[in-house]
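User: I'm designing a mutation panel for BIG2 domain-containing protein and want to avoid disrupting the core. Could you give me a predicted structure to guide residue selection? Please restate the sequence first so the numbering is unambiguous.

Assistant: Good idea. Sequence first, for numbering, then the predicted structure tokens:
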Amino acid sequence: MNTGVARITASKDGKTSNTVTITVGPAALDSIKIVRTLDNTTVTADTIARGSQRSYRAVGVYSDTTERPITATWVSDDDTVATPALPGPATEKAIRVPLTATNDDTAAITVTSTEASEVSTTLTITASNRELVEVISVTFDQAPLPIGSTTQAHAIGRYSNNDEEEISNELIDWTSATPAVATIDNTGSVTAVTKGTTTITATLKAGAQPQITDPAARDASATLEISDAVCTTPLRTPAYEASTSRGGLICGALGGLGLLCSTTGEPEFVIDADDSNHLDLNLTVSLLGDSLSVDVTPSGAATTFPGTQPVGFVVGSPAGQLLAADVLSAVTVTTLLNGEEVETGNAASNTLQVDLLGFPLLPIGNIPNEAAAVFFQPTQPFNGVRLTYNSGLATALSSLQVYNACGTVAPLPETTE
């Protein structure tokens, strides 16, 4: 049900009743549930090893039965047992148990909504004397990371009872192998500097966890890709796979008739890490209805994008300068969920957009200056995306180069003359 005002009258046998006005306001926050970020499990109590931390998310439950993350304050009744890692209201908060905490001691974390202070809940944390056995991995809240953005790195450890959870930053020294690409501070906050890759390493501080004597068990690393500022989340192999298909009389039913309807290069060029690689879609016919498509879909378990940011592709033209009008007339972008079509952006519905990325606006690594981002704003979740290149008299394009599939796109800022 939408918010707004409705006026209701009843009529019968030529007689009309008085008007009743009904005002529907926004749904009210009824309660809060706490979700453990590690496994998306709703919890009211949890156990955390001394010297480690876990992240939790506050989710509001509303009167219309909808649920969504909310901003809340997080307050402990005993900071010597468990305490929020950082001060201030937040949707997600890491709860840290100090090394000095006593085994089996408990603390109550009160989580209160900032939009409705009368709505709160309690998360009970118990300290455990499990010992850290080794540092096993490094994870990131967001990867790839766009230039100029920040993300949080997490050091994951294995404990004596085989639990795996985040190690408190007070025990970790963070380093970036290539600070020119991305830097990291002592809290694990990563800042993207320029396009490329770097290795982020988490190492136990000297003197911390002395029971771990094997140097190989005292650190772990992960590679972080820094993406350009337009294709902010490139869909990469091996998490994704790419395939092509044909449609229409010549491309589809007649198999393309050779060079009249063809592809050059491998579909995997759209999802590999080399931005100079591209898949060419060639349509040298002008018959309406013929098309070539490239689908990028998960190869296994992959991210489901919520549909809150634009999605699209980076494309180019072998003929030289690319015109926005040509792209709009020839291309559609469709989101997919488990291989099924969800939404389509196209020129007819005025939903498709094109940002020309030519010099001096934004040359992207090895992608030529004639490249463009073609994208639309979805409204529903998806985990795959399709670009369809359509033939027709309205476009001057006979070939389209497809460089990258982008789970999220950051449009270029508008400029004024």
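For picking mutation sites, this is relevant: The two ends are 44 Å apart (CA to CA). Residues 55 and 94 are 4 Å apart (CA to CA).
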